[in-house]
Amino acid sequence: MSKIKILWLSCMVLGIVMVLQFTLIFWLYPSRTTDQTQNLTVVLDAGHGGIDNGVVGKVTGVNESDLNLKMCRLIEKQLKNRGVKVELTRKDYGGLYGSLSAGFKRRDMEKRREIIKAVKPDLVISIHMNKFPMSYRSGPQVFYQKGDEDSILFAQCMQSALNNFTGNKHASLAGDYFILKCIEKPSIIVECGFLSNADDEAKLNNETYRQQLSEHIVRGIFVYLYSL
Ligand SMILES: [Zn+2]
User: Fold this and answer.
1) What is the pLDDT of residue 24?
2) How far is the CA of 36 from the centre of ligand 1 (A)?
3) What pTM does this model have?
4) Less CB within 10 Å around the terminal CB: N or C of the chain?
5) Residue (of 121, 113, 73, 75) closest to 222 by Cα position
């Protein structure tokens, strides 16, 4: 066989191998972004509302319930821009308890569960602001339902995304929370910061900081999705 024929055959074989290789790669690894966001539904739960202000800022008197809703709206916007379906349990500053009679807090929580069960989301993120008797404690902290393996991974991914932003070394923490037991899907509480800490309160009152924080919460969601 002439050298030219051998070269021509080698090129043909190499070409076929490359085409097969790329076909295989695209078949095995379709676009992750499209895959991970298409058909993805997230419930964002802004904690408290109405008569229930939640934690109140020590310096400015800002209400946790207001900040929770503002954070949810920022996260909602970014997720929707990425093609994710988003539902909020609380869409305005009012509570979800109906009439302000005895047992309103229980009714408020049950309404949240009812919404989550109806939406059937893939992920649930409840947004809160924290407080601690000692004012030195600061930074975002993520909670998951004790023993819930899927939620542990989600919480760890979220906590590490938030630690990267703030420089904290917090670990996500286990607990027993009503909102995390509404549906058998990964569910976490993100406590965005401590309103018992003056620095955190000042930051959380700042629109630019809230935007940055919301971007890192969104990043935490995608870090989790890509880790699956
Ligand atoms: Zn709260």
Assistant:
1) 42
2) 29
3) 0.84
4) N
5) 75
